[in-house]
Amino acid sequence: MECDLGEVLIRRKTIQDRVRELAFDIGSAYGDRDLVLIGVLKGAVVFLSDLIRELPVSMATELDFLAVASYGTSTESSGVVRIIKDLDVDISGRNVMIVEDIVDTGLTLSYLVSILREREPAVLEVCSLLDKSARRKVNVDITFRGFEIPDEFVVGYGLDFSGKWRNLPEIYTLKRKD
Ligand code: IMP
Ligand code: MG
Q1: pLDDT band at residue 77, thresholds of 50, 70 and 90?
Q2: Residue nearest to atom 8 of ligand 1 (CA)
Q3: Does domain 3-176 have CATH number 3.40.50.2020?
C-alpha cells in the first residue's frame, strides 16, 4: 500500500506540553528513587529523548534500549515478537519503566512485559506516548499515557511507516495514495 501524509493529528506544542506533564507525573511518582528507563527502538527514541530532559534534575535515571522485530506488515503487527537488541543493564531489583511510542494491539508490550518480569525488577511500569486502545487484543497496564488516539495509522515524532517520517515534529495521519 502506498501512502501520503494526511492531516496533523497532534501539534508540536500539544506534544511538548503533554510530555512535560508526563515528566512531572513520573517525577512526582518516583521522587528520589532511581529509575531505569527502557526505550523501545526505534519509535520511542524521539519521545524518550524529550521526556528525560523534562524529568526533575534530582532524579537518578539510567537509560537503556531494547529493539524488537515484529513479524507483520508495515501497518499491522502479528504479535510474534523477537528481541534483536537486548538490554545492557541488569534490571533485577531495579525500578524499571518501558517507554513506548504507541500501544496498538498491545501484543508487543505484553510480550516485553512478560520477558522483563522474569528478570525480577522491583517495579515494572509502562509509559507510552500514544494509546490506540480501540485496537487492543490483549490487556496491558499503561501507567503513564500521553494521548488516546483514534484507530488510525499515525507517523511522525519517532513513529514510522516503512521506515519513513520518523523525523517529523508533529504527529500525522496517513492517507492512501491515489
Ligand atoms: P502492537 O504490538 O500492535 O501494540 O504494536 C506495537 C508497535 O507497532 C508499536 O510499537 C509501533 O512500532 C507499531 N505501530 C502500531 N501502530 C502504529 C501507528 O499508528 N504508527 C506507527 N507505528 C505503529
Ligand atoms: Mg514501537
Answers
A1: low
A2: 77
A3: yes
pTM over 0.90: yes
Residues whose beta carbons lie less than 5 angstroms from ion ligand 2: 43, 101
| Overall size of the chain counted in residues | 178
Q: Closest Cα to atom 11, ligand 1: which residue? A: 102
The yes-or-no verdict on residue 178 having pLDDT over 90 is no
Inform me whether the pLDDT recorded for 73 exceeds 70.
no
The residues annotated as belonging to the active site are 104
Is the pLDDT at 75 greater than 70, yes or no? no
Pocket around ligand 1 at a 6 A CB cut-off = 43, 77, 100-109, 153-155, 159
